[in-house]
Amino acid sequence: VYATILTVDQRRFMGVANIGIRPTVGSELSPCIEMHALDFDRDIYGKKATIQFIMRLREEKKFPDIHALAAQIRKDVERTRRYFDWVLRRVPAMINEPLHVPKTLID
User: What is the pTM of this model?
Assistant: First the structure.
């Protein structure tokens, strides 16, 4: 599970992505990538998008149920927000183009 940046239409958005076999909700035969862009509500079907894997958050693991998985995903999202908040406050030159961050994270 990784903190990521999604770039689409020359805009960047924070995200959380998993690369793996989804052991809690099903067993995939081969690894897949699932990415959740934070604070994102656009229709990007058919558009070119790139995902940058910025920081590893944790290993993929099987949870006892979907509720435990959802609780961990909320923690992953919060950790990702804190990480990008830290980056933007201390090293803004690391990001060449603006990163869409909700105003509440930069106040």
Answer: 0.80
